[in-house]
Design goal:
The structure holds two protein chains of two kinds.
Chain A lengths: L4 H4 L3 H39 L1 H6 L8 E2 L6 H16 L10 H4 L4 H33 L3 E2 L2 E7 L2 H6 L5 E7 L7 H19 L3 H21 L3 H13 L2 H6 L3 E3 L2 E4 L5 H22 L7
Parallel strand pairs in A: 1-2, 3-6
Antiparallel strand pairs in A: 3-4, 5-6
Chain B lengths: L2 H5 L10 E12 L2 E7 L2 E3 L3 E5 L6 H9 L6 E6 L8 H6 L1 E4 L12 H11 L5 H11 L12 H13 L5 E5 L7 H17 L3 E6 L11 E6 L2 E7 H7 E7 L12 E8 L3 E8 L1 H10 L3 E7 L2 H14 L1
Parallel strand pairs in B: 4-8, 4-9, 6-7, 7-8
Antiparallel strand pairs in B: 1-2, 1-3, 1-5, 9-10, 11-13, 11-14, 12-13
Helix pairs in contact in B: 5-6
The chains are: A alpha/beta, B alpha/beta.
Chain lengths: 294, 313
């Protein structure tokens, strides 16, 4: 009495296209708000940098724009947006109940992964558009793309305080090509980690806050009790595979002047990106098992 | 009157063919048993109504058949497939109206939601969907979150019907509909069944609303079937007897049937009995009762009698 199942099951290509459309529709309001904020910010920046009257109002504080994707706040905005995006991607889906997504003739786990992937495609598109926009804003305001500067690299940390000659070395630094990819990799990792929480937990914000607080408490104890191995672990996590090195290389403020103990490198970026994106992918794949058919 | 009263109703519908079967189906939420060894048989092409009070396990059963709930024990076959193993294929063949009237994507327009459903069902009949939507008077430009409960139900019915699935699972489909729309829905369902060969499982605790469509009945209580049988068999087998009896009448010693419900006054009785009409009448007469009237029960009354008998045990 039934047709052959194959004729009634949708093609994966069609499902993928529909998920792209549905996620696009789901995020359009928040996307429009973000675009509006970006546009207003751009107008303000161009106005303040181009019009002497306005420059005078802020005592020349807003001068020439320098857009370096490896420097704050660009990475931060991308990561923040990526952390919040899954909440919008899964808008209207009762992930642990009867939801349209689970009622459709598609394997639940595969369907969940398709939705996560659709959200990621939109994230990359939005991020790309935002970077192009900021680039154009920078150029329109007469600013420059990337940095070309001399950085002070600490070779002997103990010698810096003692004033030992040769403890600090000057290095000519130009924004490397891979720093333009950094906002994309950091946002990808953040999006995957946030998607893991969305898929695995009923109350993702509660869990995110809990993990944040727990991490802070552990680091606080390590610092307060001067527990060496915990500090090493936290340093490793914060500097070498995440935290600052992940979003913007490594920087150490000393005596009001910025010096670098280690300049950002493609090796560090590759390692930290691989670690966090890998962790996010494993998390999403594991969490999607909660949605499996059986 | 006792447990045996309800246990006497048939459960086995024979050899089929069946669109849906379960064997010893069990599902537990924490310590609560939602389904407790359920043996369901839904004949192909039938309209099977699943009757039971709130919490009887109706919605859990339907969600299990959809592959939305993982069962713990037993076996399930939906159109020859186990939803636990081949959920996507099973759902492709099902039109589903969920218990929850809220339409999933509240931020979508009705038209966009119908388009969304169409992508997932290659057999979607766009013209049929348009006609159904027009009959229900739903504006495709309306946002889903602005729909009333009844309007949401109508949209859910369009979503369930328009891909002409071989199996419809309707969980309280008339919930929230006014009399006019309910009649229109029954009319639409009748026409749909005439046009498309479909098996329908309707879960409801308001059987009278769908009674004209029904040809098989299953009565569910506490996760177990008290009985499942063709409606005609229910009409012929479960009857209400009115009889005049002498003062102090004690009833027959043995009766060729099971008393499901009884209401005794001083010199008159009103019994609901499952059994052969002639044999029951003869038994009552031989015990001294003068049977005045025998009448069949509606499906709704029958379900109520069976369920109240179960509760009385």
């Amino acid at each position: 009495m039934t047709d052959s199942p194959a004729s009634r099951i949708p093609a994966m290509k069609a499902v993928w296209g529909e998920q792209l459309r549905v996620v696009g529709l789901a995020i359009r309001r928040e996307g429009a708000l973000a675009a509006l904020a970006l546009a207003l910010g751009s107008v303000a920046l161009i106005a303040f940098s181009r019009m002497p009257v306005l420059q005078a109002m802020v005592d020349g504080e807003i001068g020439e724009l320098v857009f370096d994707p490896g420097e704050p706040p660009w990475g931060f905005f991308g990561v923040l947006g990526a952390l919040l995006l899954p909440l919008v991607v899964w808008k209207g889906e009762r992930r642990f109940g009867d939801t349209p997504l689970w009622s459709m003739p598609v394997d639940h786990r595969r369907h969940a992964l398709l939705k996560v992937a659709a959200g990621w495609v939109w994230l990359m598109a939005i991020l790309g558009a935002a970077l192009v926009w900021v680039t154009l804003t920078t150029l329109a305001s007469g600013g420059s793309l990337g940095v070309d500067e001399v950085r002070l690299l600490v070779l002997d940390p103990a010698g810096v305080a003692a004033g030992t000659p040769g403890a600090v070395q000057s290095v000519n630094w130009t924004t490397p090509w891979w720093e333009w990819a950094l906002p994309f990799t950091s946002a990808t990792a953040a999006y995957l980690v946030a998607s893991t929480l969305i898929l695995a937990t009923r109350r993702p914000l509660f869990w995110a806050a809990g993990l944040w607080v727990a991490g802070g408490v552990v680091l606080g104890i390590a610092d307060f009790r001067d527990i060496d191995w915990m500090q090493r672990v936290s340093d490793f996590v914060a500097w070498y595979i995440g935290g600052d090195s992940f979003t913007r290389g490594m920087q150490l403020p000393t005596g009001g002047r910025e010096v670098w103990t280690l300049l950002p490198s493609v090796k560090m970026w590759t390692a930290s990106s691989a670690f966090w994106i890998g962790l996010g992918l494993v998390g999403v794949l594991a969490a999607s098992r909660r949605a499996r058919d059986r | 009157m006792t447990d045996t009263a309800t246990a006497a109703l048939p459960i086995d519908l024979g050899n089929g063919p069946f669109a849906v079967t379960t064997r010893g189906l069990a599902k537990q939420f924490g310590s609560a048993r939602a389904l407790d060894g359920l043996d369901l048989q839904v004949p192909e092409g039938s309209v099977y109504v699943l009757v039971g009070p709130n919490g009887a396990g109706k919605s859990t059963l339907i969600r299990t058949l959809m592959g939305l709930v993982r069962y713990q024990d037993g076996a399930v076959s939906v159109l020859g497939r186990d939803p636990a193993d081949r959920g996507a294929e099973v759902r492709a063949d099902i039109g589903h109206v969920p218990e929850d009237y809220r339409v999933g994507y509240a931020w979508m327009t009705v038209g966009r939601l119908l388009g969304h459903q169409a992508v997932y069902h290659p057999s979607w009949d766009a013209e049929y969907a348009r006609r159904l939507r027009a009959r229900y008077g739903i504006d495709p430009r309306r946002k889903c979150h602005t729909l009333s409960k009844g309007e949401s139900r109508r949209v859910q019915l369009v979503l369930a019907l328009a891909h002409r699935p071989p199996l419809l699972l309707l969980d309280e489909p008339t919930d929230g509909l006014d009399h006019v729309v309910r009649d229109e829905t029954l009319s639409i369902l009748s026409e749909h069944l005439a046009d498309s060969p479909t098996t329908v499982v309707i879960s409801t605790h308001r059987v009278y609303e769908v009674e004209p469509l029904v040809d098989h009945v299953g009565v569910l209580s506490e996760g177990r079937l008290l009985g499942q049988l063709p409606r005609d068999e229910l009409y012929g087998g479960l009857l209400r007897y009115w009889a005049d009896v002498p003062e102090g009448w004690r009833g027959p010693g043995e009766l060729a049937g099971r008393v499901v419900r009884r209401s005794d006054a001083a010199r008159a009785i009103e019994w609901t009995v499952w059994g052969d009409r002639d044999a029951v009448t003869r038994g009552l007469s031989q015990a001294g009762a003068a049977v005045r009237e025998v009448a069949p029960l509606s499906v709704d009354e029958a379900a109520l009698a069976l369920l109240s008998a179960r509760e009385a045990t």
